[in-house]
Write a structure and sequence with these properties.
Helices cover about 35% and strands about 20% of the residues. The chain is α/β, with parallel strands linked by helices. It has 2 domains: about 140 residues, Enolase-like, N-terminal domain (Enolase-like, domain 1), CATH 3.30.390.10; about 220 residues, Enolase-like C-terminal domain (TIM Barrel), CATH 3.20.20.120. The strands form 4 sheets. The protein has an 8-stranded parallel beta sheet. Strands 1-2-3 form a 3-stranded antiparallel beta sheet. It has a two-stranded antiparallel ribbon with strand order 12-15. The N terminus is likely disordered. Bound molecules: magnesium ion (MG). Magnesium ion (MG) binds next to loops.
């Protein structure tokens, strides 16, 4: 199929700069290119991730995470996607499978109509954000594969600018903390989960064994602003570079007061779910933590990144425990962020894909098209 080769060649030439997909007259629509109308086919399957360690946050503990793996097929090309559902966010295997069974992509015969397709998915029902992300991620992978380009290139981002990823240390006993810090040897920055009465013990234990920079995630665990500010000063002295979601998101004035007085940047996570929350978070937090499972996927994550930067906010990209599929999807944005917390696939023992790799602590993107994935395990 010479036409197909020519098309791919022309899109390769175009893809070095930022494109507005679907808007360029130079882009032949996919349905024309593939010689007639095709249908987008969505498939999905539940899967359970096994965690290397029991993971404890200020509010819960668990050793597995339910995910749903998705595929969108178009003319024999398959895009991979994923929904990850840590239980405290309210989605489950059941809710995601129920939502995805309602998604009918057969009305669309051109995967490049990404805004139309993803608007349709978003408006099917409220909520279901991880389920929606699983469609968004698979569609991005598919379109990138058709264009034969990785998404960071389609967006025009420089892969050499990716930051180091932090490695997460959950709330634990001193013995386990020392063990985890040892395991985290290749990582240049550690993210410590705080928010219980063991906070100072955790940091002191870590400081006995390493002087690496730390960031802390309180997961809304502190309730009092004066206590939060005292802790912030103490943590600053211990080499903590930012504090994530110190107090409950509903305590807007307290969080804003802390940001105003805090010696290090504050990051909103639970308070910042979707695009509309970025404007609300401006002046309340120094920055935002963008996660694909909160914001319905790569399309909205990229918009949040651009809006946050335009507002002068710090940008962090985070994750749930996920396979390398969703992690590689989020990593496409990593060249544009201040901090990355993309260790989700490193915390599990049954990953399904090889994709973005952490090399000497740094988020390292490959040249493969779409999300840069290779399937390494059947599901
Ligand atoms: Mg967080």
């Amino acid at each position: 199929m010479n036409n197909r080769r020519d098309f791919l060649k022309s899109t390769s030439l175009l893809a070095g700069s930022t494109l507005v997909l679907g808007a360029s007259p130079l882009l032949v629509s996919a349905s024309q290119e593939f010689g007639g109308k095709g249908k987008l086919k969505l498939r999905f399957k539940p899967y359970t991730l096994n965690l290397n360690h029991v993971f404890t946050l200020s509010t819960s503990s668990r050793s597995t995470t339910p995910v749903v793996l998705t595929e969108i097929e178009y003319h024999g090309i398959i895009g991979y996607g994923e929904a990850s559902m840590p239980p405290y966010l309210g989605e489950s295997h059941e809710t995601v499978l129920k939502f995805l069974s309602k998604v009918d992509l057969s009305a669309f015969d051109d995967p490049f109509e990404m805004e139309n397709i993803l608007d349709y998915v978003d408006h099917l029902e409220a909520g279901n954000k991880a389920a929606k992300a699983s469609v968004d991620i698979a569609l991005h992978d598919l379109v990138g594969k058709i264009m034969k380009q990785p998404w960071y290139k389609i967006w025009g981002y420089d892969p050499s600018k990716t930051p180091n990823t932090s490695y997460t240390i959950g709330i634990d006993t001193p013995e386990m903390i020392r063990k985890k810090v040892k395991e985290a040897d290749p990582y240049k920055i550690l993210k410590v989960k705080l928010g219980r009465d063991t906070d100072k013990m955790m940091i002191e234990t870590i400081r006995e064994v390493t002087d690496k920079p730390l960031c802390v995630d309180i997961n809304q665990g502190w309730k009092d602003k004066a206590f939060a500010l005292d802790m912030a000063h103490w943590l600053h002295e211990k080499g903590v570079v930012f504090i994530e979601q110190a107090m409950p998101k509903e305590q807007v004035d307290d969080n804003a007061w802390l940001t105003e007085h805090c010696p290090v940047p504050t990051i909103g996570d639970e308070a910042v779910q979707r695009l509309e929350d970025v404007v609300k978070a401006h002046k309340v937090y120094s920055g935002i933590n963008i996660k694909l499972m909160k914001c319905t996927g790569m399309r909205e994550a990229n918009k949040m990144l651009e809006l946050g930067r335009a507002l002068g906010m710090k940008i962090m990209i985070g994750c749930m425990t996920e396979t390398s599929c969703a992690i590689s999807a989020a990593s496409q944005l990593a060249p544009m962020v201040d901090w990355a917390d993309l260790d989700g696939a490193l915390l599990i023992s049954n990953d399904v894909y090889k994709g973005m790799e952490v090399v000497n602590g740094k988020v390292t993107l490959n040249d493969l098209p779409g999300l840069g994935l290779k399937k390494i395990r059947s599901y």
